Amino acid sequence: MKFPEKKKNLMELLNEIRIFRERDFEYSRILGTMCSKPDRELIQIYSDFLETNLGDPKNFPGTKEIEDHLIGMILDLFHAPSSAGGRIVSGGTEGNMLAIAIAKNLSRGKEVIAPDHVHFSFQKIAKIMGVKLKIVETKNHVMDVNVLSRNITKDTLAVVSVAGTTELGLVDPIPEISDVCYDNNIFFHVDAAFGGFLVPFLKDLGYDLPDFDFKLKGVSSLSVDGHKMGGCAIPLGFFLARREEWFKKIGVETPYVSTEYQSTILGTRSGAPVAYGYARLKLLGREGFIEQAKKCMELTNYVKEKLEEHGFTLFTEPTLNVIAVKVKDLDKVVKELYDRGWSVNPIRRFSSFRLVIMPHLEKEIIDRFIDDLRDACKEVTK
Ligand code: 0PR
């Protein structure tokens, strides 16, 4: 498309934009996403903060106060000690990147040890930051502490593990990994981008899930996404480090703006997702997040039972609200589903596709989906 030479009539323009938007999937037909549909009641907040810029907070002291309160809530949720610091980031990728940047400043090592299910953001980080990603084998699709111990060398820069894996929604044995890292004095980052807003509340409900946050003395940093199970609007992630002073190591002086230094990747950044996130966390509170977690897990069980009733096989028993369904001719099935208006995400290495049972899904949607899945599979095997 060429840069427009002439002005355009506003009504025509709005119409043009609307037509594009109508081509997008309705959120209720997106079954593989880890993101959330914004709450109707809170949408206005996003537009009220559109011009706020937290890159230069002196102009927006009110919005900055919201940011500070929000970070405080997150530090509290994840049992951060008083020495800890937190930053708002654009999402899991940026949070994970800050972790490795800090680790690089604390150690002479060159290798980041991570399980084979680690999110692809670490591949990007390795390329951008010139570190080596040492992928280690897992056992039953979670990190194996013995394999980890065997792989630690004097070159180890950091260890990464995951609470809520991207493909299967599993949780690594984080307490054991934390002990190994603590004993070997190695920086340990927990990627809780997905599980961070689910695991604590499932634990409240009595689910047998491991600790994964700063309660564990070996955890050095943690990333968690508001825009996944936090139900916040995109982009909103959090990065927490056990010591605030570590941020100085990756920070740069910022002479033209009102902060002394910045230690995140973005410079100019919107206050809109921050204000939205603050409101979302307060609207639900622990009470609401427990209800949300319960609803997602009940629906996950329903999906599992329905699928099994119709002869489908799950790749693993779900731990969280992620279900991987094994199918023959994966890509063809995914395409047939797409043509029927359903979006799911293929996990090719497991010949499965992923369903993430997010809060916006309901039983009726699942029933309709399973009917179409059966048709799609019949079509493929014809
Ligand atoms: N860490 C983990 C464990 C993740 O699952 C993800 C993203 C990230 C880090 C990176 O987070 P950002 O994308 O916020 O930087 N996981 C999902 C995935 O890659 C993201 C996603 C969301 C994918 C919606 C598809 C989709 O429709 O599968």
Commentary on this structure:
With 382 residues, this protein is α/β, with parallel strands linked by helices. It is built from twelve helices and 15 strands. It has two domains: 10-38 and 286-380, Aspartate Aminotransferase, domain 1; 42-281, Type I PLP-dependent aspartate aminotransferase-like (Major domain) (Aspartate Aminotransferase, domain 2, 3-Layer(aba) Sandwich). The protein has a seven-stranded mixed beta sheet, sandwiched between helices. It has a four-stranded antiparallel beta sheet with strand order 12-13-15-14, with helices on one face. A two-stranded antiparallel ribbon has the order 4-5. Strand 14 and strand 15 (352-356) form a beta hairpin. It is globular and about 60 Å long. The protein binds ligand 0PR.
Condensed summary:
It is built from twelve helices and 15 strands.
Annotate the secondary structure layout.
Elements: H1 10-22, H2 43-48, H3 61-77, E1 85-89, H4 92-106, E2 111-115, H5 121-129, E3 132-136, E4 138-139, E5 142-143, H6 145-151, E6 156-162, H7 174-184, E7 187-191, H8 199-204, E8 221-225, E9 237-241, H9 245-250, E10 252-253, E11 261-262, H10 272-309, E12 313-314, E13 322-326, H11 330-339, E14 345-347, E15 352-356, H12 363-381
The structure holds ligand 0PR.
Ligand 0PR binds at residues 32-35, 91-93, 96, 119, 121, 162, 166, 191, 193-194, 225, 237.
